[in-house]
């Protein structure tokens, strides 16, 4: 079985602020911009929706309204929050992490550690959505790198030597370079973070 990470450069203050905001205009704007994506999501989860899960749009409505939630279908609210992050942010290149198998994230984390870089890609696969939302049973997983963590990761990368980088497996190094690229993009926008969803 393969997995995937979806990463966003986002102002998390705005994304988290949408939860429970009651902002009808925001809900309508999200529904309009992602109309096709929402329709595809409902097709994908058709059997769950027939069993009682909210549609993607209804889940977005619930997240923005701060409930009510049906905890049995927590996954839909996780995906709704992903849509909010997508609305407020920008998709980051995930080509090194989509798809991936086995312990790839742990392997990249080991490379990051060997270079003395503190961020971890497993944060995106083994975390959970903001505490205001009901936790999904399994997917999506969620994690984030704060502005401070992103700035620190760039500083730590810049302190590495060519010899250290050359000692790593080429594919691992390419993945780490992607991670540093995300961190640099976040650093270039003060207050912005990297938010990641694992599926």
UniProtKB/TrEMBL annotation:
InterPro entries: DUF7691. Residues 1-197 form the DUF7691 domain. Pfam families: DUF7691. This is DUF7691 domain-containing protein. It comes from Actinoallomurus iriomotensis. The lineage of its organism: Bacteria, Bacillati, Actinomycetota, Actinomycetes, Streptosporangiales.
